[in-house]
Amino acid sequence: MYSASHVFSSITRLLSSLCRRYRSLDDLWYFGGGSGRHQVAVHAHSPSNENEVALEAGDTLGILGNHWDGYSKGINERTRQKGLYPAYKARDVFVGVDIPLLDAEDG
């Protein structure tokens, strides 16, 4: 019979192996030829260290990544400064596009 520590060790090895093979579907996806993803700052942010970027409400941010610890990495398009910022201080910008409809004659 297996001990609880043996079972726990086996589960830990399995999960570790899976984490190395697969990435989260929530991670950022970039498609070639796209215009990139942007956010707009909804709250000002004063950096607390040299790794963070200053934000003013209304600043547009180009998304460079998500650190999954409450911070995102981006470039402030107003100041051209790159760095981390609290993710809750920005919201995604959605851009709509017109999609032409096909007539029954177009086939």
Question: How does the SSE layout of this entry go?
Answer:
Blueprint: H1 4-21, E1 38-41, E2 60-66, E3 71-76, E4 82-86, E5 90-92
Antiparallel strand pairs: 1-2, 1-5, 2-3, 3-4
SSE sequence, one letter per element: HEEEEE
Per DSSP, the total helix count is 1
CATH class of one domain: Mainly Beta
> Would you give the CATH topology of one domain?
SH3 type barrels
> What's the pLDDT, averaged over the residues?
81
Give the CA-CA distance, first to last residue. 66 Å
> Outline, from the CA principal axes?
flat
Q: Radius of gyration over alpha carbons?
A: 21 Å
What is the H level of CATH, i.e. the homologous superfamily of one domain? SH3 Domains
Total beta strands: 5
Instruction: Give the second-level CATH assignment, the architecture of one domain.
Output: Roll
Sheet with most strands: strand arrangement: 4-3-2-1-5
Helix content: 10-25%
Architecture overview:
It is a single chain. 17% of the residues lie in helices and 23% in strands. With 107 residues, it is of the alpha+beta class. The chain has a domain at 25-92: Roll (SH3 type barrels), CATH 2.30.30.40. It has a 5-stranded antiparallel β-sheet with strand order 4-3-2-1-5, with no helix packed on it. The longest helix has 18 residues, at 4-21. It is flat, with a radius of gyration of 21 Å.
Explain briefly what this protein structure is.
With 107 residues, the chain is an alpha+beta fold. The chain is built from one helix and five strands; from the N terminus they run H-E-E-E-E-E.
Features:
five-stranded antiparallel β-sheet; single chain; alpha+beta; SH3 type barrels
